[in-house]
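Dear support,

I submitted the protein below through the web form. The confirmation email said the job was done, but the results page showed an empty box. After a refresh the structure appeared. I'm attaching both so you can tell me whether what I see now is the final result or a partial one.
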Amino acid sequence: MPPESPLAGPPGTVTPPGEPKPPATPGPAVEPKPGEPAAKPPAGPTEVAMNSSTKPPVEPPAGPGKEPGVGPILEPAAPVGPAQPLGRLVSDKQLLLAFDKKAAGWVRAPSKGVLVSRDRVLALPTFRPEVGLSTGLTLRLLGGTEIELLPGDAQMPMGINVLFGRAVLVPLANPGSRLRVAIGERAGVITFAQAEAVAALEVTPVRSPGTDPEKVPSQLNATLVAVSGELTWEQPGLEKPLKLSAPAQVTFQGPAVVGPAAAELPKWINAETLSALDARASVAVEQALQSDRPAVQTLLELAEHRQREVRWLASRSLVYLGRFDDLVSAMNVADPKSDWQEYVAKLSEAIALGAENAAAVRAALEKQYGAGAGELYRMLWGYSQKDLEDGDDAKLVAGLDHDNIAFRALSFWNLKEITGAGRLYRPELPAAQRKQSVQRWKECLDKKEIRHRPGEPGVKPPPPPEPPIELN
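What the results page shows now:
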């Protein structure tokens, strides 16, 4: 057996052609609670989250590039010998977590620490760590991003498996740098034509509204952007490489490839300006997390910090480690300063990251709300157009007057997501002060206006207009 890095992620398994596994959307690791035995991590290049729920682990996908019937598999042969050193953390004050396989949990990656093949790394919210890769690229991860480092061989360059999030790729000097990129069941190779070429990549799990996240996996959509210079994307099944000259992008929507096409550069590519509160909280979290202590323990302590902004950043970070108790509890606090919309949005994002995380959210709701947890969990799924037409629109409006603020918050969050309107409703206010806003929503219900807008999730796009009739 080859020696493993103390920060090495789960070893990959290569499925022979003709033996595909059912796809699953990867999600952040759900760590065991203190005092509980550590869960055994499943094998596979896109290891799913671990938690102590009774549901079985989600089967990992067949592996990067294993798309049935479309050309060669973009996966090197099983590595022989020691794990390959593939990168190094080059930013000092920017937090990066690495999955410690032996401890079955996340720890802070040490500054200048070497990362090897199959290491999984995670950038927490508000941080933008940079990793220097052995291919001569700098990988900048934006907060809320998890990747796995993939080994290369004589025929295939090293790569990254982007489980979710955003990354910017910058060549250091030489043109012609190549990087293999896996996104769920899709894999390809990016080639940077010039030294000044820069790429950006965004990977987002997208759910079908109204479907059970523990039974119906999310679809991984991705956008590859040429920020400057020219780059190409090669993928099995494409007749020829796709060339992108900045500013341009190509979009991957499930099995479909859209583009390349000219596009405006996303704002997130440039360094974001943190609010004063987030900046202060980031300093506190960065100083508290140490590489010799499990990250989950430190973040749980910070979730009880005296400063509200530190508590909020710690709670957001815990979501990516599979801990949801803090956000679930916070939804039930009738505080005018409560960020309940952010709490609900984070929980909605979490259930899209995989069945294991959805199960962990459900367990946290059951622990906090007992018999009412099922209804709250259902509201996190969202609603299709048919759900609304079948009467769920009335249930959401009725929820605006529920005795429990968590029910009111989730009902309103759904109504606002569906219609784009708020109608001055605030779930934390007493019933008398909510009355006028609730009446507006009831009028909207009577007019059957609680429906998804065209182009929104859950809505089929309108048919294209018929071509005009030409008269000879």
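Response: this is the final, complete result; the empty box was a page-load delay. Residues 431-446 form the longest helix (16 residues).
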